[in-house]
Specification:
The structure is a single chain. This protein has 325 residues and is of the alpha+beta class. It has one domain. Helix content is 37%, strand content 25%. A 10-stranded mixed beta sheet has the order 1-2-3-4-5-9-8-7-6-10. α2 packs across α8 and α3 crosses α10. The longest helix has 20 residues. It is globular. The model has no long low-confidence stretch (mean pLDDT 88).
């Protein structure tokens, strides 16, 4: 019985010269920016926004607001199910590193941030959709997200993860536009004001099967809370600089992808419901095709079904049933 699969990590710098590799999911947020006529300008503007936001949050001993630069790496994880060198592109995440120009040192940041997965595309865009086709009421398939969750935890427990990353991942996502969030009195100097949701969501349940907990915070001078998925203690396990790296990176992406929420002209109040049709917002100077991204998720879900779910179905079923993670 296979107790764990083999993982291979590839690192690509996400800078203004970035070109998506052939194996990159093209719905991945950063890959979407790096296509078309405006690709280099998109990348340059996005990276400038990240650095500006980082320096605004890390303002101490930083009188000119230019002490730090954020360096981003795309981490691609391939999985070998049978140990025969046949790899399937499993997940893609982002790694932040912070360069301190004052001390001329590089500070390791958090891994995770953005999260992309072919199997998640299959679960949400193929399995869930087919399950509800023609049904009067929406429902969730039995064991939805179980395999994906166990595969992710297997990767985290693997020697490959432990050799490459010092701390568990933190994933930072947008808030859900079908939930209401209530502002609390709890406030962190970097993460900002904590919000609590009125109910759980399918995304929360899916990430819980991966081992993640979630908390919602609106950082200083932000207009809406972000969802932080983490292991352990988010507020104690990471330094302020590490957290700022994640906030500045992911808030920038969300301003581009969801300007109605994260580039809105009004700040979230005590009770907040995000609205993707909210007209009172500003657009960044960065081109992004949200409609195309949703269409491609279906294609990539079918790719996962054809090249991963079906060919390895028997092995994955047996492994999942006996997996302790």
């Amino acid at each position: 019985m296979n107790t764990g699969f083999a993982y291979t990590i590839k690192r690509i710098s996400f800078d203004e010269n970035y070109h998506p590799s052939d194996s990159t999911r093209i719905t991945t947020n950063f890959a979407n920016l790096a296509r078309g006529e405006s690709r280099q300008e998109n990348l340059r503007n996005a990276l400038r926004m990240v650095d500006s936001r980082f320096n605004a949050l890390a303002y101490w001993d930083n009188p000119k607001g230019d002490r730090y630069s954020v360096e981003l790496e795309i981490i691609s994880v391939d999985i070998d199910i049978e140990g025969n060198g046949q790899n399937f592109p499993s997940i893609e995440i982002l790694k932040t590193n912070i360069f301190d120009h004052k001390t001329n040192t590089r500070i390791e940041g958090i891994v995770g941030n953005n999260f992309s997965s072919y199997v998640r595309d299959y679960d949400f865009s193929v399995l869930l959709r087919d399950h509800n086709q023609g049904q009067a009421e929406f429902s969730i398939p039995e064991n939805f997200g179980e395999l994906h969750g166990k595969l992710f935890k297997d990767f985290l427990n693997s020697p490959t993860y432990k050799e490459n990353f010092a701390k568990p991942p933190v994933v930072c996502l947008s808030v859900s536009d079908n939930k209401t969030y209530h502002r609390t009195e709890n406030q962190h100097p970097v993460l900002g004001i904590e919000y609590l949701p009125n109910e759980t969501s399918l995304t929360e349940q899916y990430f819980k099967k991966m081992g993640f907990e979630v908390r919602y915070f609106m950082p200083p001078n932000s207009v809406a809370p972000l969802a932080f998925y983490f292991f352990g203690d988010l507020l104690s396990d990471y330094t302020n600089i590490e957290l700022i790296g994640t906030i500045s990176t992911m808030e920038t992406f969300q301003k581009i992808y969801r300007p109605e929420i994260y580039n809105a002209n009004a700040v979230a109040g005590s009770f907040y419901q995000p609205n993707l049709k909210h007209p009172d917002h500003s657009l960044t100077q960065i081109v992004y095709d949200r409609e195309e991204r949703s269409q491609l998720a279906v294609k990539q879900g079918k790719f996962a079904e054809e090249h991963f779910i079906k060919p390895y179905q028997a092995i994955l079923k047996q492994w999942s049933e006996h997996s302790a993670v």
